[in-house]
Amino acid sequence: MIRQRLKVGFVLISALVFVSCSGSGLSDEYRQEEGKTEENEIVTIRYSSYLLDSAQASKVYYDAIREFEHLHPNIRIESDFIQNANYTAGIKIKLLGGEELDVFDTWSPSLFEEFRKLNPNVYLDLTGSPFLEQFLPNTLKPVTIDGKVYGAPEVMHSDGLLYNKTMFDSFGLTVPGTWDEFIALCETLKGKGIIPVAMDAEWSTAQFFWGSIMSNNGADEEWTRKLERGDIPLSDEKFVDAIRKHKEIIDRGFVPPNWTQLMHEQSKDLIGQGKAAMIMTGTWSLPSIMERNPNFEIDFMMVPGEERSVPNVNIGTYRVINAKTKHPEEAKTFVAFMNSKANQERLADGAMAVPSVVSARISSQVAVKVSELVTREDAVLYWPHTVSTESLQVKIQEGVNKYLTGQSLEEALTEMQAVIDEARSK
């Protein structure tokens, strides 16, 4: 969202710092501006996002927008929800068609770069904006190009496995530290009639498992750049080992036998019903899984590697401003408010996420655990997000999915390599 290496050495998020419970809970810097521009002409900021219909977070966003309009009576926010599946195309249409668009969201460094392919000057330069000082420094790296910052980060997540801790405790099971221990755990669960890992056929699900193994194998941004330049082939052991390990858990019957017919929400149901012990996903799924059965304690674990397990960082959203906006200052004010400490804390409360701002309050015990992982010195950017564009990332993921559903490894690698070579030639 750029292609600088995100070897995340985040400063550890400070222990609980609570916001005031009075009024709206907003910081004084926003309260002080209330009423200052009431007599000015009304300015409309058009904001497009894939977040505004999220079951877990939409209320936080809409509440924040209402508060912003109350504090800034001269600014109106015209919000536009675009579903995830249509978001990339929807934003491209707006940008290419010259539609008025002031602020919009991106969900990965790859999508950030995808929009830059349309126009390298698509984003408004935010460098030097005072509100950027609140963010943990390395959270800005994916949206920094040639020393200039073009986006504001929101809450952080990690990808891997969520597991039913209540079930683990009842069986006397512990979180595995190595791949061999993970395989042994799956065998134990299978022997008890429990599905070890809930998996489904949605194209984006598998990446949370094999993508995590890529991080364990040392496939960082530098490795990905070499891959895209043609310096190393996709048949490199870092990649092949990751997708083979994923295929192994399928071949050994550690996933639902009908996984190719399941949607992601159905695989979540398997956890909620106590039929599965783990699920491949990200920490953003914690609330929706917990809602299925409040009696189960759900926790997060990294996908274990052969020699090491590396935390990966997934900054769910970057908020950016269209360089062609007619209202740059008002748009900056809106982004500063939406990504503020107060709003990130409220969003993190509901999504059990980790704010990307310094000294933020973290209320969830599992989020505290995740914060310790994503701020570790060895934490890295989640591998699929290191691929330079969203289009290429999706094609690689689709190629892996073909392999997982029966295509030979040689044929799958050949097809994916052709896609990478084609992207390089453009």
Automatic annotation (TrEMBL):
Q: Which SUPFAM superfamilies match?
A: Periplasmic binding protein-like II
Database matches in InterPro entries: Bact_solute-bd_prot1 (IPR050490), SBP (IPR006059)
What protein name is recorded for this chain?
Answer: Sugar ABC transporter substrate-binding protein
Organism, scientific name: Paenibacillus soyae
